[in-house]
Amino acid sequence: MLASATVRVMSPEEIAARAGGEVPFLRGPASGAFAERQMRLRQLAAGHPMADFLGFIAEVARAQQARLAAFPPVPVPDAAALERAGASGRPALSAVDWPRDPAWRDAARALAADLAGSAPAPARAVLARLAEAGDDWLEAQADCLLTGVMRGLDLATAPLVAAALQVYWTHLVSEVQRLHGGGATQAFGRPDDPTGCPCCGSGPTASVTRSQGGALGQRYLHCALCGTEWHLPRAKCSHCQSTRAIAYHSLDAAGSDEDGSARAAQATIQAESCEDCGHYLKIVHTDRDPFVDPVADDLATVTLDLLVSEQGLRRHGVNLMLLYGEPDPDGAPPPGGS
């Protein structure tokens, strides 16, 4: 069942004052992010109704970590390009406009080969299809995923194509940070759209609260593509920026006699909704469980999505490991073709 609560969230000014004005705007992707996700997925899979799916995505995360560690050198923006992007309020590594290096396609095929041995039987045919897909088809699938166009998207292979794109963009952001020094805050500017990733412009999968020094419980949006996290005060809706009516929803045990609203306000995984725009985005709290992962915990709480959607709320953000929609018959690639 669904428990809901309306919680007073401090104003942006109160949040800044409490944090002492020292809240980092950006948190770049960690070098071991996929390995940490793999461990969290395995933890969540134990006894879960979706154990097989979560276990397979854990294997995908393991393979992603291996691909990230072995990713070859690829072009990244130079200092002048970063400065131009920052001055214009655009992400320097735009998911839509950045010219993709062919290395991401090699990563996709390597992921398919890596997973073939451990994948469940129903997934092996999908992996074989991905391994044999032509360059043009892979690029067309990437275009669909990165622009949000479902027509022509092969939903069966989409999470694996997305996994390779995640590795590629995580590598790009990490390389920019390494080459230009000072971390992501100095390398990337603040975009005009505060709901999009400052590095690649993609939307969030979920948000996560993090504490650092005196800055307690700061909300960051977690990029669905490159894994970068950027700060957005909790007083604002992550979709429309409204500060008027924010509510929190969480899963609750059926038939519980206790106060569901109190538990909803303190739940580790919540759906944060906005009355003004009718959208929601999940939020995970590291102060309540230090091992939460925005992607993994989002996948493990699909029931929360279903219950919240029954309230008429629409999801803001995407998890590239679990896409919804009608399969497109034009999406399946011809073996070895384009």
TrEMBL record:
Residue ranges of coiled coil: none
GO MF annotation terms: ferric iron binding
Gene Ontology biological process terms, A to Z: protein maturation
Subcellular compartments: Cytoplasm
Main subcellular location: cytoplasm
Functional summary from the UniProt entry: Necessary for formate dehydrogenase activity.
Family per similarity comment: Belongs to the FdhE family.
Official protein name in the record: Protein FdhE homolog
Origin species: Piscinibacter sakaiensis (Ideonella sakaiensis)
